[in-house]
Amino acid sequence: MVVTDYGGKIEYQDIPVPKPGPNDILVNIKYSGVCNSDYHIWKGDWIIQAPLPVVPGHEGAGIVVAKGANVTNFEIGDYAGVKWINSTCQSCEYCESGWETVCPTQTNSGFSVPGTFQQYTLANAVQAAHIPKNVDLAGVAPLLCAGITVYKGLKEANIKAGEWIGIIGAGGGLGSLAVQYAKALNYKVIGIDSSSKKDYMQQKGADKVVCFDEVE
């Protein structure tokens, strides 16, 4: 799927299968999540627009079918995930301190390089995610953006096991993932959302719920 005009028709096109560079893996995408960012990339309403044409998508899960000469951490047939960060320099002060998200020379799947709304796409082997063979690829795909986003937030909060954490929007897409991650980390969770999502928050594991439309 290719965006050739901001806000225009998304086209199906035949695209040559790319060849991996020395540090890349070629992934046969089996499933891809759809992120709200994909909508904005298509609309072109960010301050920095994606160069056109572009293949959107950055939540891709699939199988490694080829790799570059320097790649040692993936083998053909491995499951791999393609994320928003496709590659980084790995040598700037940000990369060396674990903040690749602000690397000034990073490339981004579905934005500056072709993304996961296609059958085959490339990813730098260092940034690609390893996926166990016993995991459902369809379930993994959305975790490669939404899941990473909320997990990072939980870890940065410096909450200890047994402590309480409040999650606003706990009945939504990212919020419900945050509840599940928090419970897996043994946090006590207060889910905050509308009363229409009360049962859903409890189903996902919230210990307490606060419904903002019921609070006086």
TrEMBL record:
Check the record and name the Gene3D superfamilies matching this protein: Medium-chain alcohol dehydrogenases, catalytic domain, NAD(P)-binding Rossmann-like Domain
Limits of the Alcohol dehydrogenase-like N-terminal domain: 21-133
Q: Does the keyword Phosphoprotein apply?
A: no
Q: Which cofactor does it need?
A: Zn(2+)
Catalytic activity as recorded in UniProt:
a primary alcohol + NAD(+) = an aldehyde + NADH + H(+)
Q: Which UniProt keywords apply?
A: Metal-binding, NAD, Oxidoreductase, Zinc
Q: Which GO terms describe its molecular function?
A: alcohol dehydrogenase (NAD+) activity; zinc ion binding
**Keyword rRNA-binding tagged:** no
Q: Which GO terms describe its cellular component?
A: cytoplasm
| InterPro entries tied to this protein | ADH-like_N, ADH_Zn_CS, GroES-like_sf, NAD(P)-bd_dom_sf
Family under the similarity heading: Belongs to the zinc-containing alcohol dehydrogenase family.
Q: What is this protein called?
A: Alcohol dehydrogenase 3, mitochondrial
